[in-house]
Amino acid sequence: MNKNNKMDVKIETKKGSMDEWPEPIVRVQSLAESNLSSLPDRYIKPASLRPTTTEDAPAATNIPIIDLEGLFSEEGLSDDVIMARISEACRGWGFFQVVNHGVKPELMDAARENWREFFHLPVNAKETYSNSPRTYEGYGSRLGVEKGASLDWSDYYFLHLLPHHLKDFNKWPSFPPTIREVIDEYGEEIVKLSGRIMRVLSTNLGLKEDKFQEAFGGENIGACLRVNYYPKCPRPELALGLSPHSDPGGMTILLPDDQVFGLQVRKDDTWITVKPNPHAFIVNIGDQIQILSNSAYKSVEHRVIVNSDKERVSLAFFYNPKSDIPIQPLQELVSTHNPPLYPPMTFDQYRLFIRTQGPQGKSHVESHISPR
Ligand code: OGA
Ligand code: NI
User: Fold this and answer.
1) Neighbours of 316 (CB within 10 A)
2) Which of 115, 136, 252, 265 to mutate to test the pocket of ligand 1 (most atoms within 8 A of CB)?
3) Which fold has domain 57-366?
4) pTM to 2 decimal places
5) Are 155 and 226 in contact (CB under 8 A)?
6) Closest to 49 in 3D by CA, of 264, 243, 236, 232
7) Three-state DSSP class for residue 119
8) Which of 6, 88, 231, 264 is deepest in the core (most CB within 10 A)?
């Protein structure tokens, strides 16, 4: 598994196939609007991957909900109870919701609703932003460049916020007229929130609070936004909005749809449907933080289910290390008894995997483990 995956990545890039998709792109929105009586084969998952239920699961289990009120005070990170809850969530679930995080609810709603309006444009109006697998920037409908691969029931928009030289307004939508300004402000707020959460994550491992940030390249971190649009699906029990994957980057701050469930997180062998609190963000550990923490924190597999009567819009913000510095377990966290689990690799190299292979569960971070 390990060797083959790495080889495939190399072959794909040598062939130069990253400049174009392996087959014509079909917008899921177009399929959804064409009143299909059945689901096209490409979107039908094998029985073992199909969602067990498309109903909202009973509200018995949920990922931890953590109130951040008062945590970021002038005296530093002072609340031991909140800190401990975050620590537990990072080690056990890899996922948690935060409320009272300091981002204005109006800004959160404006960001999501501007994007909803954008996705409601006719498909033709969005084709000018059509993306390629080299940078993924723009309007897209698949992840991965393997010809004939199984496809997910979603379209998306991907853009860079940081570093500054990659932020290019021309690659952002210009409709609705407020969208660029709103995304820009939203991005700045989420970068700030992410920086604060990074301090919590470092401190909770007994490190100095800016340790993770330094390891990410200090001011030179990367930040990007992937807006997911999940149209109504005629056969939701056969499809997935997004196949199981772990996020390749550092940390993800997700703004879910306020009306429609869909995100499921793997807990042991079951899929837990996340019930978002009003105006909460869903935070999750990505592969790069699992690697830096030498697996003290877990980058957990998740997926998205779809349904037949409501579309869903979500904004996934990715906080990533500077793309060309090697990421490996922090020295402070390894010892002879706890040797480093992963060899160094830059994020540029690392993310080629998901960019070429598409979502593949946790196979990438697992195959990245150092040989023993
Ligand atoms: C992602 C993701 C979840 C969602 O974009 O990586 O996991 O709820 N999204 O859309
Ligand atoms: Ni994800």
Assistant:
1) 22
2) 252
3) Jelly Rolls (2.60.120)
4) 0.94
5) no
6) 243
7) helix
8) 264
